[in-house]
Amino acid sequence: MSTSQRPVPLGKGRSLAPGVTCLERIAGIILAAGESARMGADKALLKWGDTTFLEHLRMTLKNAGLGLVRVVLGANAEGVLKQIRLPPVEVVLNRQWHQGMLTSVVAGLDSLPRGLVDAALVCLVDHPCVSSALIRTLVEKFHTSGKPIVLPTYQGRRGHPALFAAKLFDELRAAPLAVGARHVVRQHPGDVLEVPTEEEGVLLNTNNREDYERILRLRPPD
Question: What percentage of the chain has pLDDT greater than the value 90?
């Protein structure tokens, strides 16, 4: 499992090492630490086609070309690791999961290698209906726009995943637990880039059995 390290935001305009792509300097953080009380089953382990929510989302990030992936586990970490084989370096244990989702965001950020990350794409395990193409688009818009926050929108509504530049990591760490990452978004209204998409999945979450059945009717995006 990965060890926590405090990342250092990179300076604007810093050049990449030879052979390193923009995607490789983006970390994908999958939040899967909650107890899924309303669902009655661990959302990370919910079946979708031939795979699970967690496995699908992880492979989506990998297929998009992100250089780092972290999976933050908590309430059912042991159960997840028994059923899904994950590289130890990708696994982050959040023992404060009960204090709210922001603690998982911070745990994921603290696990990233110092000075090697331009931004983090924060993904929710109960929002699995996103494609690798959309993720690449969000990263591209981040690099071309210069905006430190990038959010997908569907029919004008903001969804997930959310991308935060490294220079905002400390603000995420300091955000109120009760508000979470939304606090940072609200503090920077002029620094948010909304990226319209035709993928309704950016809005689809899984809080109960009805939500899950709706997702089961969808084909997992590539």
Answer: 74
